[in-house]
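Entry type: protein chain
Record version: 2
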Amino acid sequence: MARNSLKNICRLIQEATVEMPVEQSFLADLKRSIEISDKANSRKPSQTYKPSSMHCIRNMYYQRIGMEQDSGESSYTLIGICNSGSDIHQRIQQAVLDMKNNGMDCEYINVADYVRSRELKSIEIVKEPDFEHGEYETKLFHKDYNMSFLCDGIIRYQGKYYILELKTEGVNKWIGRKDVDPKHYMQATAYSLAFDIPDVIFVYINRDMLDMKAFMLTPTAEMKEEMLVKIINCDSYIEQNQVPPKPVDIPRMTCEYCSYKEQCRKDG
């Protein structure tokens, strides 16, 4: 049924582009092809917690129970922004890897090797990085927290270990950037707890001009306790098969980009 609907949509688009100049028809087809390919390659997220989504307990709950995400498709512009962010990540990670060879006191650590050398038994290595082929992220699963995450990297800089987290953002937000974005606190806290590394260096990259700003965040004991309590509370809601109340202090943009808006509205 879905396949037939998609064919009908493509047919209508083709009919609408018949009268267009050929270059505009090509552009419309290109945009639509990007959106179709993205949807075909998308995967259902795992039923685990994600550090980047732990600011909202209801979002955590929906992820853990495997709730169906909103049916809307990503626009070609949003897909392009995500792909651009991934490309920028890889270039910066390669530059960090090059720092040692360029005479700087910085080593880009293989996260999987770090987990093994520190005998972090709670962390399962799901996918190893491959520095030689430009794959720098390590996919991990924390068994105690039931949490999946991708780590941008760990560095040893001037003799001390730091977690490295890269973020891309538009020029307007970047110009006003004065510190770590509060919506990234929970992610830093999760990484700090998982790796037992106190400090997280955030590098915010302006995707328009490719300039950068860096800030340090050292999650406090209170922040770590808050994260663990949130996991415990969400686990309790799951056991009771009860949707948690919607938080009242969630930023508007967080809800705007949430993948569970439709279900959240139904649950009140």
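Comment: Residues 165 and 202 are 5 Å apart (CA to CA).
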